[in-house]
């Protein structure tokens, strides 16, 4: 064999080995992937290579930028048949138009978003429209920065705050889910009022706080969450305090709103609202257990209330005994607490004060307006701050609360501002530790229109023996 033939044979063998090696090389995951644009271009107008300030020569598998839920590439190798280039590779790295139509998208905070993208602005959902403009809903929000500022700038006698638990809710949501007392029917509103015996010259103290007179017997406010059940919360709160006071502190139950919400179903709607007269009927005829025994579980309004998990039977003389265990398995005390029939007080400021002073906290309906949700401190009066924003920003609904005392403050102009102190049911982070003060003697927000007292059903065996 000649030298030339030997050389040709060697070259052929090298070529064959190279071909085998090439054909046997394992292809990388990048080469096997289907590319980024099988299902269309996501965020065609987005800034990726430009934002990362990367453009790489040849092939560089590290030349990547996060893209949607994967990576896109800014190297020359990306621009092949199966493209994995970032959407702005062609314009930013090559200086030529992209090979697909560039959707307009919508800009926000320095970023571009594709058509159909959404974000929330407080209680309103904003969607990126086909024309490249954000289209936002126009609901009135429960927390409105403009109204909060207007209250705090004005000379209204109280301060407003932005509450995180209300952020993102519409005003309609607040009225529907954070109140929950049906306005008393004409028949109930015409109940005979019980009048307090008062001398015409009787002087009542300028300040009164039930918790100071009856220490350990006045219970802290609870939080009804997004359950429109103030009818049950205010009833349980007043009954808890009254039973504690009338048993001289021998019984201090924190009664269960959930027991009322789930079991008092006659003409009541649980977390969608209820009547005060129906709640007091149930407390007198059936009774309820403590909040520890039957804890609150209905933080959200539900179409159907959870089934009643507490039942009782009569033991004679109007008293009742539980026939079910506590829904809370950690507690065994399932004693039933009852009240006597509730009575309506006169709307007279002095008579309500005397009832509070002698017998303890009372229940009152309250007409809640849009600005009340933002109350933080001071003596509340409904303000006109929402009037300039249009009718949908002015809403009100009926609520019920527990009045626990009264007082008065000297105003800068020398006048005296009288107030009631009341416990709400929106938790202790709202208002003044869960309480609020409201103008007294002027029926502010109808707080003196329908005021109810009650006696706890307390027998001699319940009383402390000396």
TrEMBL record:
The yes or no answer to whether the keyword Transcription regulation is present is no
User: Which N-terminal residues, if any, form the signal peptide?
Assistant: 1-23
Q: Extract the ranges annotated as region (Disordered).
A: 300-335
Which keywords appear in this protein's UniProt record, sorted alphabetically? Answer: Disulfide bond, Glycoprotein, Secreted, Signal
Which compartments does it reside in? Secreted
Q: Name one GO biological process term.
A: proteolysis
InterPro entries of this UniProt entry? Pacifastin_dom_sf (IPR036201), Papain-like_cys_pep_sf (IPR038765), Pept_his_AS (IPR025660), Peptidase_C1A (IPR013128), Peptidase_C1A_C (IPR000668), Somatomedin_B_dom (IPR001212)
Q: Return the Pfam families for the record.
A: Peptidase_C1
Domain named SMB: residues: 51-98
GO CC terms in record: extracellular region
Task: List the molecular function annotations (GO) for this entry.
Answer: cysteine-type peptidase activity; peptidase inhibitor activity
Family under the similarity heading: Belongs to the peptidase C1 family.
What is the name listed in the Swiss-Prot or TrEMBL entry for this protein? TINAL protein
Native organism: Leptocoma aspasia
């Amino acid at each position: 064999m000649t030298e030339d033939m030997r050389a040709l044979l060697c070259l052929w063998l090298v070529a064959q080995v190279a071909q085998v090696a090439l054909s046997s090389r394992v292809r990388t995951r990048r080469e096997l992937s289907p590319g980024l644009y099988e299902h269309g271009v996501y965020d065609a107008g987005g800034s990726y290579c430009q934002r990362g300030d990367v453009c790489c020569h040849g092939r560089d598998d590290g030349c990547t930028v996060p893209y949607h839920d994967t990576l896109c590439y800014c190297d020359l190798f990306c621009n092949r048949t199966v493209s994995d280039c970032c959407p702005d590779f062609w314009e930013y790295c090559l200086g030529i138009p992209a090979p697909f139509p560039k959707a307009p998208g919508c800009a926000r905070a320095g970023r571009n978003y594709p058509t159909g993208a959404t974000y929330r602005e407080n209680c309103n959902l904003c969607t990126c429209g086909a024309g490249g403009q954000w289209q936002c809903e126009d609901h009135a929000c429960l927390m409105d920065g403009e109204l909060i500022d207007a209250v705090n700038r004005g000379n209204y006698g109280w301060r407003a705050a932005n509450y995180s638990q209300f952020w993102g809710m519409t005003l309609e949501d607040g009225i529907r889910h954070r109140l929950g007392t049906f306005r008393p029917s004409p028949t109930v509103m015409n109940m005979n009022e019980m009048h307090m015996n008062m001398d015409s010259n009787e002087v009542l103290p300028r300040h009164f706080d039930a918790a100071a007179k009856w220490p350990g017997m006045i219970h802290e406010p609870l939080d009804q969450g997004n359950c429109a059940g103030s009818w049950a919360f205010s009833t349980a709160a007043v009954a808890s305090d009254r039973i504690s006071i009338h048993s001289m502190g021998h019984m201090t139950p924190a009664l269960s709103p959930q027991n009322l919400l789930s079991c008092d179903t006659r003409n009541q709607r649980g977390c969608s609202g209820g009547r005060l007269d129906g709640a007091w009927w149930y407390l007198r005829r059936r009774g309820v257990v403590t909040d520890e025994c039957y804890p609150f579980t209905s933080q959200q309004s539900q179409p159907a209330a959870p089934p009643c998990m507490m039942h009782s039977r009569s033991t004679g003389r109007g008293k009742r005994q539980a026939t079910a265990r506590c829904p809370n398995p950690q507690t065994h005390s399932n004693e039933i607490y009852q009240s006597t029939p509730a009575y309506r007080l006169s709307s007279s400021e002095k008579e309500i004060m005397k009832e509070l002073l002698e017998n303890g906290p009372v229940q009152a309906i309250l007409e809640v307006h849009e600005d009340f949700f933002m109350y933080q401190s001071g003596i509340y009066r409904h303000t006109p701050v929402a009037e300039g924003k249009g009718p949908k920003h002015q809403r009100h609904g009926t609520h019920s609360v527990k009045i626990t005392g009264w007082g008065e403050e000297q105003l800068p102009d020398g006048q005296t501002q009288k107030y009631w102190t009341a416990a709400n049911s929106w938790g202790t982070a709202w208002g003044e530790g869960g309480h609020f003060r409201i103008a007294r003697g002027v029926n502010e927000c109808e707080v003196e229109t329908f005021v109810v007292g009650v006696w706890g059903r307390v027998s001699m065996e319940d009383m402390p023996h000396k």
